[in-house]
Amino acid sequence: MRSSLLAGLRNGLLALGLGLTILILQHPLRELGFALLNATPEVKASGQAYYDALIWGAPATLLNFVLMGWFLGREQGGKVWLLSAVANGGNVVLDYLFMMQWGWESAGAGAATAASQYLMLLVGMILVRSEGWFSKVSRVGFRIFERDAMLANFKLNKDILVRTLALISTFAVFTNLSAGLGTLVLATNTLLLKVVSLAAHFIDGLAFATESFAGIFQGQGAKNKQANLLRMSCGVSLGLGLIFATVFIVFPSSIFRLLTNHSDVIETIQADVVWLIPVLGFGSIAYILDGYFLGLTKGRILRTSMLLSAIFGFAPWVIAAWQFRSNQMLWLGLSSFMAARTITLGLQVPKTLIDNRD
For the chain, is the Cβ count within 10 Å smaller at the N or the C terminus? Predict the structure, then answer.
């Protein structure tokens, strides 16, 4: 009980500190990021409006990651599902209110996402309070900053931070080059990435469960259960990813017309939508392997895999895409990135079933 509470408090303080640091540095971060963006002035202005609103949700977003991990570690997946439903449902409602009713456009989209994260955090705090955890903080507060525990915590979070930054940077470069290839390519790729993100929301639920059970089975030394868990999760996740891809490939016009009324964008999407097969096919397995290794607290493996995938799987194709001005090569790079993540993580799985040491 106490160790669980201490883990939550330590990670919560770290998340809050990092979130506040991001807010303090939001202006230099914005200038740096948009200085690297190849886009028209209109696209940049829209992106900056979205960023300026979205960035205020950083502390809540990071704290929500801690809350979800804490609930999963205590085998309370139902609460994680509830929090995800609150965030996604709130985002949809606020998007409609801010963008469609109030006309806030890009700023409204950013504000809706940020506000939905604070709504999720509020519900999460209510759930924590309902279990009586707040009254126990005073009993363990003096142990929060114990040296060995804090060092171990920083070590794991350092690896996860590097891994996350590499992932974010990869998608940022993809979007940046999309903008450099023209407004039409940017609009098309943005819509396709929305599909990838939507599929990831569903697959993440399975990845969270895999993370939780992988840690439990590791603690029990039940390697057969770990192997069965991984086989089942990867199979179901791959099925979900391919179903998503197939639906959008088979009905591209009717589905994407719900998101845009620009016929030129619809035409271009019909030619590029097939890339959802490799991106979601490999990506669905990569998401599960991410959750698996997170559950085993193998942060170094996740960090190394992500860096190798970004450098050797993604970067060469991105350079070629820019050189030849090819959106197809850009998507090949993203597909190669997902495949590299799956391969580099998959190669490490046998070691976890033989020896639990990193």
Answer: N
Count of other CB atoms within 10 angstroms of residue 292: 28
For residue 170, which of 283, 309, 310 has the smallest C-alpha distance?
310
For the entire predicted model, the pTM comes to: 0.79
Question: Nearest-CA neighbor of 334 among 193, 182, 180?
Answer: 193
Identify the residue whose tokens are 């098309």.
Answer: 188
Token pair of 188 as six digits: 């098309």
| 95 to 3, 23, 83, 105, 264: CA distances (angstroms) | 39, 23, 18, 9, 25
pLDDT tens string for the chain (358 positions)? Answer: 567 777 788 888 888 998 999 999 999 988 887 776 666 777 778 888 888 999 999 999 999 988 987 887 777 878 888 888 898 888 888 988 987 788 888 888 889 989 999 999 999 999 999 888 777 777 766 667 676 766 666 666 788 888 988 998 898 889 888 888 888 888 889 889 888 988 887 888 788 889 888 988 988 889 999 999 999 999 999 999 999 999 999 988 888 877 667 788 888 898 899 999 999 999 999 999 999 998 898 989 999 999 999 999 999 999 999 999 999 999 999 999 999 999 999 999 999 998 544 4
Give the Å distances, CA to CA, from 163 to 104, 193, 218, 341.
34, 20, 22, 11
Q: CA distances (Å), 150 to each of 6, 137, 156, 340, in order?
A: 10, 17, 10, 32
